[in-house]
């Protein structure tokens, strides 16, 4: 158990001082302004000694929906309350936060900064802390960290893209979440993330406008904060997101630094926040063991579970600069065996289909199936199927799909919000606990259908997507399977997913889906 010790925070730091603290020398701060309660922001110091295992850096900036100094206690138990709350004078109903969170927001605290970066990809490192953990982590109170560049919302590169409790809890992203209900760490917050990062495309040598902030969602109770490491706002060293696949009880080796940006040699220093040297291994919460090899690659040793997980790694370049990136051990959107697909010969079980079969599509009539793949796994956790009750989205039968399988949703509000009447939403973003539910237990067989183009097909009468190759396709399949797909589609780049074609409809993020449907996924 930790002992309470107050984190020094200068709550009177100006917006320009906070901006200069966040950004490194390669990013010029032109101007900065702060919006929010005067006690909800500041520059913190001594993070390494006062909040070990929590703060993303020894010095940095904190933005909060409550009083910033409530992040720690001065003595005794560090976490005395499960509901620390301050109804501040921060902004309520900010349009950007409302749109991003998909709900009305309160107590917003944010920085607006104009910068001139030297490079064209910007990153910074941060930790999200919240009292919404664990009681409301899947409820409607999704306190939200928002980052915008030149007016565009920047998604996190893992999960549903949101920095909120729903995307970053012990169930949805166990390796990125740290529970503090047992007072193990010196913070009043009940839970927080490991140090994470965002990668942001910017216009090099030009003025770019960035907004960074946090807001309460659906009420002003239960505080949340974001801590941003000093000097981590840089284009000089950027750890880019990576993906890989490892089969149950097997090993996979991959190079996560090959696409990173830096000066000279780039060295991995941490795996999921734990310092490592060559030969060291880190066991993730989800059971995989990640080992740093002498050549700078990582080897993942899987347990018996087949699942999609995320973890972080930190690199350092020759100048001493550091950056944190994500690695995803990924899964594929797919149908569940037993589903019935509309074909030229009427409805047929999806697992009985063969390449060459003519499948009825919404946009292009009958189309030949080019490739089909199957796998059977335990129906547990993130890999458990999503069941959609009959007639939930129009006339259709009950259907089960994988969590990432996207359903075609028709809604007049979509035209107002996104300019299209029909959009694609991942099944996991439609879960409401009543008509759309996660079904755990036993085994499930997932089936993947691939066409010449991304298609909308009919399964149990419900329109949903076929498989869409994306940037992670090289890590999603075994080498023989990938070679088969690339033979069928020679223009497909297995590293980027380019060369296949666009999505059949606009694909909504988790926050966009919640804004449209009102479902607190």
Automatic annotation (TrEMBL):
Polar residues bias spans: 71-94
Disordered, as annotated region: 36-94
Short name of one Pfam family: Big_9
Hedgehog/Intein (Hint) domain location: 333-470
Stored Gene3D superfamilies: Hedgehog/Intein (Hint) domain
Record's protein name: Hint domain-containing protein
Organism: Roseivivax halotolerans
